[in-house]
Every structure is written in C-alpha cells, then in structure tokens.
Design a protein that fits this description.
This protein is an alpha/beta fold. The protein is built from 10 helices and 5 strands; from the N terminus they run H-H-H-H-E-H-H-E-H-E-H-E-H-E-H. The protein has 2 domains: 38 residues, no CATH class; 210 residues, Rossmann fold. The termini are far apart.
Length: 293
C-alpha cells in the first residue's frame, strides 16, 4: 500500500510540475521583448509590436487544447460574414492593438505607415523582422499598423475607426488579402483592396500609396498559390502610378526552382528574418523615391 501511495504521490507531483511548466512557457516573455501601448512611439521602438513567440508550438497546443468553444454569434459562418469590400468589426483579440495604433496615430509624426495583416504585423516582432525594421525604418518616423489574422474587411473597419486620423503620412505601404484567399473569390478580394485604397485616399489625401502584391504561400502546385498569383495580376492593375504605385517582389522570395526560398520563410505563409530583409531591400529605393529622400 505504501509503495503504491508513494508512486501516486510522485506521479501527481510530476503532473503538477508539468502543468506549471506549460503555463510558465506559455506566458513567459524574455527580457527586452516588446514595448507596449504604454510607450507608443512610431519610430525608433515599434510600440505595438507582438511579443516574441518562444516555444511557439507549445503555446499553440495549449491554446488549442484549453480554449473555450468559439462564439458563433461573433464569428459567424463564411456565408454570414461581410464581403471583403464591406467593413467588419475586428475580433476581440485584435482590439488592444487597434487601441495602441490609435494612441500612436494621435501623437502624429508618422511619415511612413505600413498597413496589413500578420505578414506586416510580424515585421516588428522581435524574433522575425524587428531588427530589419529598425535598420531600415528606425529613423523614418515609421509606424506598423498590421494585425495578424486580419482580412480585408477588418482593415477597412480599422481605417474607418480612427487609424488614419491625427497625422498626415507621406507614404502608406499596403499589403492585404492573404487571409481572404480561401474564403472569397478573386473579384471580391480585388474589390475589397480597391475599397481600402479609396478609404486611404479619402482620409490621407496627401499620401502616396505603395501597393504590394500578396506574398506567395503554399507551394507552386497548390491551388492557393495559383489563386494568389491570379489575384496579384489584378492588384497590379489597381495602380495608377500617380497616387498609387505597385511593387511586385514575388520572384525575390523564391529559389531558382520557383519554390519558397530556403531560410527566408518561417512557414509556408510568413517570412522569417531573411525574408523581411529581402522585402525591405527590394522596396528600399522605391520608398526613398516616394518619400522624397
């Protein structure tokens, strides 16, 4: 009996230690990881940047295992939600970043603004593109208003709710649409991007817009890759080269075989640090030209 009791105690203690380790690794952030909304600065320190995701796979497993059931009223079905050209209220999890962006916007002094989803968002994440961001844009009065998971309709809502107020940008860099690819048609996505361009032009009439094609995702033989390529053909046609300028850097992110360049991608959709370096380098001289530098 005593032997079994000790084994039970040891097993229970082990489970407690394991549970504690999971919680610690899920919540822990190393020193020096992100600044936050308490210090909104649009230039030398990316104010609203996400934390570095150490132990990312473990975090995702914990969240997937223990998260509550989705709120059907909030999320809705694909058929119920707005089309890309119709603004949709951002998700609850995105609101803290939106509030941080509003604080940055109120301070003004934004000459260069990036708008987009996670691909843009992670440009200021410490374990992804932050070092590149600071090298290229740390002295440009630049701000990053990207939110991971955003679709076109979420960005449209953000622009209609304060993120373009309080400053007058010289250049706005826009890449959006990758999160719409699976659920929406090509024409709908292009109409959504066009709606975003109109919103920017209306609220930031003096800004030039650098419109980027959506980055490749998946693999060359996948349907999503081919659909993104088709969407990009339409995106290029939205530029008038007077107020809206188009930039395509698709090939720079691929290897000689036309696949995702090894070492430049964190996964099949998001660049790693090398990918952000390629992005910034390919865009650099065009940005300087548009900024009048």
């Amino acid at each position: 009996m005593g032997h079994r009791w000790r084994k039970w105690q040891i097993g229970t203690l082990g489970l407690i230690v394991l549970a504690g380790a999971i919680v610690f690794l899920t919540l822990w952030t190393p020193p020096g990881a992100p600044t936050g909304p308490s210090n909104p600065s649009p230039d030398s320190r990316p104010a609203c940047a996400n934390k570095a995701r150490h132990f990312g796979a473990l975090r995702q497993w914990v969240k997937a295992t223990f998260r509550s059931a989705p709120n059907s009223e909030q999320n809705g079905s694909a058929q119920d939600r707005p089309k890309p050209y119709e603004a949709e209220l951002i998700r609850a999890g995105a609101r803290p970043k939106h509030e941080c962006f509003l604080e940055v916007a109120k301070r003004g002094e934004i000459d260069l603004l990036f708008l987009g989803d996670s691909i843009t968002d992670y440009f200021t994440r410490p374990d992804r593109g932050r070092s590149v961001w600071l090298e290229y844009y740390g002295d440009m009065n630049a701000a990053n208003f990207g939110i991971a998971g955003d679709r076109i309709e979420h960005l449209l809502w953000r622009l209609q709710n304060g993120e373009l107020e309080g400053f007058s940008a010289k250049v706005i860099v826009l890449m959006i649409g990758t999160n719409n690819v699976r659920a929406d048609g090509t024409d709908e996505i292009l109409a959504g991007i066009e709606a975003v361009l109109r919103e920017i032009s209306s609220r930031q009439p003096d800004a030039k817009i650098l419109l980027l094609s959506i980055f490749p995702r998946g693999g060359p033989e996948s349907d999503v890759w081919k659909k993104v390529a088709s969407i990009n053909s339409g995106i290029a046609e939205l530029a008038d080269q007077e107020r809206v300028y188009h930039l395509e850097i698709w090939d720079a992110l691929l290897d000689d075989e036309g696949a995702l360049l090894d070492g430049a991608w964190a996964d099949s959709t998001h660049p790693d640090t090398k990918g952000y370096e390629i992005w910034a380098s390919e865009m650099h001289f065009k940005l300087l030209e548009l900024l009048g530098r």
